[in-house]
Amino acid sequence: MKKYLMMMVLLFILTAVVAGCGGGDEPVDEIINVAQDTTAPTETEATTAEPETEPATTTTVPEETTTEAEEIDLTGLAINPLTGLYIPEEIAERRPIGIMINNHKAALPQSGLAQADVIYETLVEGGIARLFAVYKDFDAEKIGPVRSARHYYLDFAFDFDALYVHYGQSPQARAAFKELNAPNMNGLSYLDTIMCFQDSSRKRPHSTYTSYERLMKAWKAVKYREVYNEGFVNKFSFTDVVHALQSAEVAGKVTLDYSYYHYAWFDYDAETGKYMRNQFGGPHIDVETGEQLAFDNIIVQLVDMWKIKGDTEGRMDMALSTEGTGYYISQGKYIPITWKKDGHNDPTQYYTEEGNILEMTIGKTWISVFPTYRPEGLIIE
User: Fold this and answer.
1) What's the CA gap between 131 and 4, in Å, rounded?
2) Which residues does the chain have with pLDDT short of 50?
């Protein structure tokens, strides 16, 4: 089926070309289940000191270059709101899962990131960046290492009506889950052996993993809603036309120097039309595939961030329910954009400078939520 879908996407593209994408957690954590009250044993998380609207669908029938138009059978398929690609209908209707992924040097190499549809990257305490990988059409047998929640990542989950999967949580995240009635699955709870497993070759806290099958079992256990919320508005808008951005600005390399600790960059591969991810001095590899992570779209969202006053671990906070600026990068070029989020449960929307909804290239997206206080760390060239 996956090969079939890939062939179908290539046909669409060909048509377009012919016609003209911490440390410092609380020691004991329990799952906060908004679907049911559950009491269960908790565990202690081992810690170490670490510097730690709707997508544009199409029913256009692709044309072959030398034969008459041939209809493609889309029976049982629907658009994936995260990528704009066709996937099985039952999966397209299922709400996504967002997983907190450890991105400390000691946590490398990571597993399962290649199957994520969208990946967020932003700072936690100590200058470390953690990832929030959002999945819909996946079957990964190993995803992780899974790490503890931070409260502002909840806005990323809300953007997609996603379940938030984590292993432990900060005090601020614990409060936010309750206050915002946010669906989450915490491995530091009775869900541990259901949802998670330990890789004996890794040291805690970089040893916790999950998988598609375990996530589905945990989902059944907590009895959360399985389909999109009524009235869900998609965050992204896609176009099936491979088009050059209306910009003369070249984006062959995108550098994201977050802090003294975390430095990452993307190189554009003109042959594949994708941006290849690098960090810590070399390619960012998914160990399960052995391949470098690649993305059709990059969004750099510039956000005000600060250390929480009085927090002994130096935890961060940021302004996400507001508006700001950023950049959209795709097909070797970039344009300035603006963004706006009215509230926690409202999706972040991206706009061109002219005020139009941003239309993105079909495919996978990396979103770098980057601090406004570090303008010298962002270079597009």
Assistant:
1) 30
2) 1-67
DSSP labels for 289-313?
TTEE-EESEEEEEEE-EEEPTT-TT
Q: How many residues does the chain have?
A: 381
Q: Which two tokens stand for residue 249?
A: 């600005």
Backbone angles phi, psi at 272, to 5 degrees: -95, -15
* Contact assessment for residue 163 and residue 95, using Cβ atoms and an 8 Å cutoff: yes
- Domains held by the chain: number: 1
> pTM for the whole thing?
0.84
Cα–Cα distance measured from residue 243 to residue 56, given in angstroms and rounded to the nearest whole number: 15
Judged on CB neighbours under 10 Å (0-12, 13-18, 19+), 269 is: middle
Where do runs of H (alpha helix) occur along 196-323? 212-222
The CATH code of the domain that includes 195 is: 3.50.90.10
Which residues lie below 8 Å from residue 75, measured CB to CB, with a gap of 6+?
A: none
> End-to-end alpha-carbon separation of the chain, Å?
38
Residues 219 and 179: their CA atoms lie apart, in Å, by 21
Range of the structural domain that residue 114 is part of = 1-381
Residue 368 contacts residue 301 (beta carbons within 8 Å): yes
Report the alpha-carbon angle 254-113-376, nearest 5: 25
d(CA 155, CA 343): 9
Query: Among residues 202, 185, 216, 221, which one has the least CA distance to residue 144?
Result: 202
CA–CA distances in Å: residue 38 to residues 167, 182, 189, 220: 17, 15, 10, 14
Asked whether the beta carbons of 125 and 148 are under 8 A apart, the reply is: no
d(CA 259, CA 52) in angstroms, rounded, equals 11
- Rounded Cα gap, residues 78 and 260, in angstroms: 44
pLDDT reported for residue 243: 66
**Separation in Å, CA 113 to CA 116, 156, 290, 302:** 5, 17, 11, 24
d(CA 335, CA 298): 11
> Could you give the count of Cα atoms lying within 13 Å of 5 in the half-sphere of its Cβ?
17
Specify whether the CB–CB gap between 219 and 178 falls below 8 A: no
Secondary structure element (H or E) that encloses residue 351, with its range: strand 349-352
Per-residue pLDDT tens for 156-212?
Answer: 999 999 999 999 999 999 999 999 999 999 999 999 999 999 999 999 999 999 999
